[in-house]
Amino acid sequence: MSIKNIMSPSILSADFWKLGEQITTLEKSGTQWLHIDVMDGLFVPSISYGMPLIKSIRKRTGLFFDVHLMINEPERYFEEFANAGADLINFHLEATEDVEGCIEKIRSLGKKVGIAIKPDTPVSEVMPYLKSVDMVLVMTVEPGFGGQKLIPKCIDKVKELRIVTDRIGLKDIDIQVDGGITVDNVSEAIDAGANIIVAGSAVFAGDIASNINSFEKRLGNRS
Ligand code: DX5
Ligand code: ZN
Questions:
Q1: Is the pTM of this model over 0.70?
Q2: Which atom of ligand 1 is nearest the CA belonging to 180?
Q3: Confidence of residue 2 (pLDDT cuts 50, 70, 90)
Q4: In a designed cystine with 112, which of 69, 88, 107, 199 is the match (CB 3.0 to 4.6 A)?
C-alpha cells in the first residue's frame, strides 16, 4: 500500500500566547502537517479563527496546511483561504448545495481537496465524489469543539469507506479522522483504514514533543 500514516495536529488546542513556539516544537518533533479548524458560529456553534491567523503562520513555517472549514457555503471563501496559505481545503458536504462546484473551485485554485462528513452523515453520501477528491475527513466527534470523546460508530464508517475506496481502486486516497483521537485509541482508527490523524488536545496537553513521539510510534513511523 502506498499510503502513509501522517499526524496532523490541530492548533485549536494550542496555547495562542505561545503559538509560534508550539508550532516550532511540532516541526522539531518531525510533524509535517498542521490541521487548522475554521468555525463560523453557524455551521457549528463555535467561532475560531480565519485568514489572518493562517497568513501570519504561513510566513513562518513550511508545514502542510490542512484547513478544515466548518462554515456554511464554504465556496464563498475558497479563494481567500487559498491565498492565505492553505495547501488542502476540507469543506463539509453538509454545508453546501453544490459539492461538485466546490471540488472544481478548489482544484482550479491549485489546492488539494478534502470532503468532510459529520458523524450522522452516511458514507454513501460521499461515494459520488470519491474519484474527484484527495481526502475524505470522517469526523469522529460532532464538529465544533476540541476535547470531546470519540464516537465509536464513526470508526465503522472509516472501515466501510476504506473497503469501498479499495474496491474501486482508489489506492492513494487519504482518509482522515478528526475528534477524540488519543494515543490509546489511534490504532483502532488506523486498523480501520484511516491514515491522516488529527489530534488536538492529545497533542497539546502536557509535553508536545513526547506526545508526538508516542503518536508516531503508534502510526508505525518510529520504533
Ligand atoms: C473539532 C475539530 C477538531 C478538534 C479536535 O470540531 O474539527 O479538529 O480540534 O480536537 P480533539 O483532538 O481535542 O478532539
Ligand atoms: Zn478539525
A1: yes
A2: 14
A3: low
A4: 88
